[in-house]
Design brief:
The chain is mainly beta. The chain has no helices and 11 strands. The radius of gyration is 13 Å and the shape is globular.
Length: 115
């Protein structure tokens, strides 16, 4: 069973920064893809940023230039560096990993941006 544990959420003022971490219970290279999704109240969960297995990154247009996804294979951890945060970024952020045809989710971490 794969476990993904997120951390790093919190309350920040607009324009500020936060870094989210997602620690996986196995090598991150065992996954076909890993990434971050978010879900605001009353909305569907949406992709924020992701890695494919060969390291290609993908970003939602709303976060391009402000968010950066990275990984540390020695720590089996994926990060999401968020800068120039806006009130619209307020959501629960979820780490996601895909292995074969299975999709795994973390428990989520709340990010609240005050305007």
């Amino acid at each position: 069973q794969v476990q993904l544990v997120e951390s790093g959420g919190g309350l920040v003022q607009a324009g500020g920064s936060l870094r989210l971490s997602c620690k996986a219970s196995r090598s991150i290279f065992s996954f076909k893809a890993m990434g971050w999704y978010r879900q605001a109240p009353g909305t569907e969960r949406e992709l924020v940023a992701s890695f494919t297995g060969n390291g290609i990154t993908n970003y939602a247009s709303s976060v391009k230039g402000r968010f950066t996804i990275s990984r540390d294979s020695a720590k089996d951890t994926v990060y999401l560096q968020m800068s120039s945060l806006m009130a619209e970024d307020t959501a629960v952020y979820y780490c996601n990993a895909v292995q074969y045809e299975l999709r795994y989710w973390g428990q989520g971490t709340q990010v609240t941006v005050s305007s």
